[in-house]
Design brief:
CATH topology: Rossmann fold
Structural class: alpha/beta
Oligomer: single chain
Radius of gyration: 17 Å
CATH class: Alpha Beta
Number of strands: 6
CATH architecture: 3-Layer(aba) Sandwich
Strand order of the largest sheet: 3-2-1-4-5-6
């Protein structure tokens, strides 16, 4: 396990497939880092595979990781963890959190998830343990605020120790699906992914 988990006091973990990482991911991560002055790192945590996402769109874990490292190398506040990739198998969040907290029980973890994930987090394995051990951060848009506020209340009733923070982050109309589709057609990816990632996709002919 990476040393920053053992030596940090407070981290935000941003998990996902990052297939590929894009400007929206980085913008939201930056917003979180700047919103919580006590954070030591924002840690990008690429998954190997999950029980609900099994398609890799023809891109290897090594390619996803290489793009992620290229994207964050200019971000002194960001790190990349190989914890889930090295563990292999299907990814369950509770196992990841248990492993991290076993080496640093006092670590303050802010766990970043999308609004869609918040809506079904109570169906995740050992959801009560997850909600009790980390602070959940979720971006909220004005159009979906009422639904998320209702779900937040439901989760807090389900788990009284839950800490759920809804953040009004900048909105990015970007998706990894859109980027993959453009890459498949050989289109320009400027403004969607960092230049280094665009070069990697082009050089390695990814998503073709």
């Amino acid at each position: 396990m990476e040393e920053f988990f053992a030596t940090s006091k407070s981290v935000a973990i941003f998990g996902g497939s990052f297939n590929p990482i894009h400007i929206g991911h980085i913008g939201i991560a930056r917003f979180v880092y700047e919103s919580f002055p006590d954070l030591d790192h924002v840690i990008f945590l690429p998954n190997a595979k999950t029980y609900y996402k099994q398609s890799g769109h023809g891109v290897s874990d090594e390619d996803r990781l290489a793009m992620l490292k290229l994207a964050v190398r200019e971000l002194p506040w960001a790190s990349v963890s190989l914890l889930e990739m090295e563990r292999g198998g299907y990814t369950y969040t509770v196992d990841t959190l248990r492993e991290i907290l076993s080496v640093n029980p006092g670590l303050d973890i802010k766990f970043m998830i999308g609004a869609d994930s918040l809506m079904y987090i109570d169906s995740w394995r050992e959801a009560g343990e997850i909600l009790s051990s980390v602070e959940i951060l979720t971006a909220v848009r004005q159009t979906g605020a009422d639904v998320l506020l209702k779900k937040k209340a439901e989760l807090e009733a389900f788990c009284p120790n839950a800490r759920i923070t809804l953040l009004h982050t900048p909105e990015y109309e970007i998706s990894s699906t859109e980027i993959r589709n453009k890459a498949a057609c050989g289109e320009d990816l400027s403004g969607l992914v960092p230049a280094s990632v665009a070069d990697y996709i082009k050089t390695h002919e990814l998503y073709r």
